[in-house]
Amino acid sequence: MNPRAIPSLLAVLLLLSFTTNAQDWHPVTLPFCSQIKAKGAMVSNRPFWVFEAPAPNSRCCADLDLKFKGKTEQFGYFKLSGLPKGRYFVSFDLKAKHVTVPLSVERIIDYEDCLASSRITLDKVTGQMHWEEWINVD
Q1: CATH number at residue 127
Q2: How many domains are contained in the chain?
Q3: In 3D, which of 50, 48, 53, 51 has the Cα closest to residue 86?
Q4: Percent of the chain, pLDDT > 70?
Protein backbone atom coordinates (compact mmCIF):
# COMPACT_ATOMS: atom_id res chain seq x y z
CA MET A 1 0.00 0.00 0.00
CA ASN A 2 1.20 3.47 -0.85
CA PRO A 3 2.24 5.31 2.37
CA ARG A 4 0.77 8.55 0.98
CA ALA A 5 -2.69 6.92 0.81
CA ILE A 6 -2.80 6.16 4.56
CA PRO A 7 -3.78 9.72 5.68
CA SER A 8 -6.54 9.80 3.03
CA LEU A 9 -7.81 6.40 4.10
CA LEU A 10 -7.84 7.47 7.76
CA ALA A 11 -9.75 10.64 6.87
CA VAL A 12 -12.40 8.61 4.99
CA LEU A 13 -12.77 6.14 7.88
CA LEU A 14 -13.11 9.01 10.35
CA LEU A 15 -15.77 10.65 8.18
CA LEU A 16 -17.69 7.36 7.88
CA SER A 17 -17.65 6.80 11.64
CA PHE A 18 -18.82 10.39 12.19
CA THR A 19 -21.76 10.09 9.79
CA THR A 20 -22.90 6.72 11.14
CA ASN A 21 -22.91 8.07 14.72
CA ALA A 22 -25.20 10.98 13.88
CA GLN A 23 -28.79 10.53 15.08
CA ASP A 24 -31.73 11.40 12.93
CA TRP A 25 -34.14 12.66 15.62
CA HIS A 26 -37.72 12.67 14.37
CA PRO A 27 -39.73 15.62 15.82
CA VAL A 28 -43.09 14.71 17.42
CA THR A 29 -45.85 16.28 19.49
CA LEU A 30 -47.18 14.54 22.61
CA PRO A 31 -49.42 12.72 22.97
CA PHE A 32 -47.91 10.79 20.06
CA CYS A 33 -49.86 7.94 18.49
CA SER A 34 -48.34 5.91 15.70
CA GLN A 35 -47.93 2.43 14.26
CA ILE A 36 -44.79 0.30 13.95
CA LYS A 37 -44.54 -2.12 11.01
CA ALA A 38 -41.79 -4.58 10.15
CA LYS A 39 -42.29 -7.31 7.59
CA GLY A 40 -41.79 -10.75 9.07
CA ALA A 41 -41.96 -9.48 12.67
CA MET A 42 -44.74 -9.64 15.24
CA VAL A 43 -45.98 -6.13 16.03
CA SER A 44 -49.16 -6.78 18.07
CA ASN A 45 -48.93 -6.87 21.88
CA ARG A 46 -45.15 -6.45 21.86
CA PRO A 47 -43.22 -4.67 24.63
CA PHE A 48 -41.48 -1.36 24.08
CA TRP A 49 -39.36 0.89 26.28
CA VAL A 50 -38.69 4.63 26.17
CA PHE A 51 -35.23 5.82 27.22
CA GLU A 52 -34.23 9.46 27.69
CA ALA A 53 -31.28 10.55 25.55
CA PRO A 54 -29.43 13.35 27.38
CA ALA A 55 -27.38 14.49 24.36
CA PRO A 56 -27.86 14.58 20.58
CA ASN A 57 -25.07 12.03 20.13
CA SER A 58 -26.45 9.59 22.75
CA ARG A 59 -26.55 5.93 21.82
CA CYS A 60 -29.30 3.55 22.81
CA CYS A 61 -29.85 2.22 25.36
CA ALA A 62 -27.34 1.10 27.99
CA ASP A 63 -26.83 3.58 30.83
CA LEU A 64 -29.84 5.68 29.79
CA ASP A 65 -32.79 6.45 32.09
CA LEU A 66 -35.87 4.32 31.45
CA LYS A 67 -38.84 6.71 31.32
CA PHE A 68 -41.72 4.54 30.16
CA LYS A 69 -42.67 0.92 29.44
CA GLY A 70 -45.60 -0.15 27.30
CA LYS A 71 -47.03 -2.65 24.87
CA THR A 72 -48.13 -2.17 21.32
CA GLU A 73 -51.79 -2.69 20.56
CA GLN A 74 -53.20 -4.77 17.74
CA PHE A 75 -51.40 -4.18 14.41
CA GLY A 76 -48.52 -2.35 16.14
CA TYR A 77 -50.33 0.80 17.25
CA PHE A 78 -48.80 2.57 20.25
CA LYS A 79 -49.15 5.79 22.24
CA LEU A 80 -46.57 7.93 24.05
CA SER A 81 -47.61 10.56 26.59
CA GLY A 82 -46.52 12.04 29.90
CA LEU A 83 -42.95 12.82 28.84
CA PRO A 84 -41.32 16.27 29.02
CA LYS A 85 -39.72 17.89 25.96
CA GLY A 86 -36.47 16.21 25.01
CA ARG A 87 -34.88 13.38 23.03
CA TYR A 88 -35.91 9.75 23.49
CA PHE A 89 -35.21 6.31 22.09
CA VAL A 90 -38.28 4.11 21.68
CA SER A 91 -37.05 0.54 21.64
CA PHE A 92 -39.41 -2.17 20.32
CA ASP A 93 -38.99 -5.90 20.89
CA LEU A 94 -40.70 -7.42 17.84
CA LYS A 95 -39.63 -10.98 18.69
CA ALA A 96 -37.60 -11.62 15.51
CA LYS A 97 -36.35 -8.02 15.33
CA HIS A 98 -35.39 -5.25 17.69
CA VAL A 99 -36.18 -1.75 16.40
CA THR A 100 -35.04 1.51 17.98
CA VAL A 101 -36.63 4.81 16.94
CA PRO A 102 -35.00 8.15 17.93
CA LEU A 103 -37.68 10.78 18.70
CA SER A 104 -37.47 14.42 19.71
CA VAL A 105 -40.48 15.67 21.71
CA GLU A 106 -40.80 19.26 20.50
CA ARG A 107 -44.29 20.15 21.65
CA ILE A 108 -46.81 18.98 24.24
CA ILE A 109 -50.53 19.62 23.93
CA ASP A 110 -53.00 19.27 26.77
CA TYR A 111 -55.08 16.49 25.30
CA GLU A 112 -55.36 12.89 26.45
CA ASP A 113 -56.54 11.16 23.29
CA CYS A 114 -54.92 10.94 19.89
CA LEU A 115 -55.36 9.13 16.61
CA ALA A 116 -52.46 7.54 14.82
CA SER A 117 -51.20 10.03 12.26
CA SER A 118 -48.03 8.24 11.23
CA ARG A 119 -46.57 4.84 10.49
CA ILE A 120 -42.96 3.79 11.08
CA THR A 121 -41.97 1.01 8.70
CA LEU A 122 -38.75 -0.97 8.84
CA ASP A 123 -37.51 -1.92 5.37
CA LYS A 124 -36.72 -5.65 5.36
CA VAL A 125 -33.91 -5.37 2.81
CA THR A 126 -32.05 -2.22 3.92
CA GLY A 127 -33.03 -2.12 7.61
CA GLN A 128 -33.84 1.58 7.18
CA MET A 129 -36.83 3.24 8.87
CA HIS A 130 -39.39 5.06 6.75
CA TRP A 131 -41.98 7.50 8.11
CA GLU A 132 -45.43 8.00 6.64
CA GLU A 133 -47.44 10.87 8.03
CA TRP A 134 -50.98 11.91 7.28
CA ILE A 135 -53.70 14.25 8.51
CA ASN A 136 -56.86 12.83 10.08
CA VAL A 137 -60.04 14.62 9.01
CA ASP A 138 -63.41 13.97 10.62
Answers
A1: 2.60.40.10
A2: 1
A3: 53
A4: 81
